[in-house]
Amino acid sequence: MEAPNRDDKYTHNEESKVSFEELIAAGNSLKTIGQIMELIGAANLFSLNERPTPGDKQVVSGIVLQTIGQIIHTTGIFQQLGEPSDEVMLQGQKNEIAGTSLKTAG
User: Fold this and answer.
1) Helix intervals (H) in the chain
2) Is the distance from CB of 99 to CB of 73 less than 8 angstroms?
3) Quick one: DSSP state of residue 1?
4) Is the confidence at residue 106, as pLDDT, over 90?
5) How far apart are CA 13 and CA 27, in angstroms?
6) How far is it between the farthest Cα atoms of the chain?
7) How far is it, in rounded angstroms, from Cα 78 to Cα 88?
């Protein structure tokens, strides 16, 4: 039985990396869907409140910022899938960072 050669190991590692990148992107997609659902629920709940407090408004505003940040973050992850150009990869990383910053601010 032959030992796997270096090229086979490289190919296996690259295939594994792609699988994990796709798993990360799928997980972030689910987080984005959940964040959008949270926003819809909070906005509807807020609209039913007859006397919203400033705190209620801040909570909804924070969820809006978090949702926008999550969408931008997930967009950045998808930009980095496959073999993008260096420019696209850099933009994807910038979007991830910007999205994370917005989520934190929210």
Assistant:
1) 6-48, 54-79, 86-105
2) yes
3) -
4) no
5) 21
6) 76
7) 10
Q: In angstroms, what CA-CA distances link 18 with 4, 23, 28? A: 20, 9, 15
Domain ranges of the chain: 6-105
Residues of the chain above pLDDT 70, percent = 96
Q: Which two tokens stand for residue 76?
A: 């950045």
- The tens digit of pLDDT for each residue in 63-104 reads 999 999 999 999 999 999 988 899 999 999 999 999 999 999
Cα gap 4→31, rounded to integer Å: 38
Task: Specify the DSSP class assigned to residue 80.
Answer: T
pLDDT above 90: residue 18 = no
Amino acid at position 32, single letter: T
φ/ψ of residue 84, rounded to 5: -70, 160
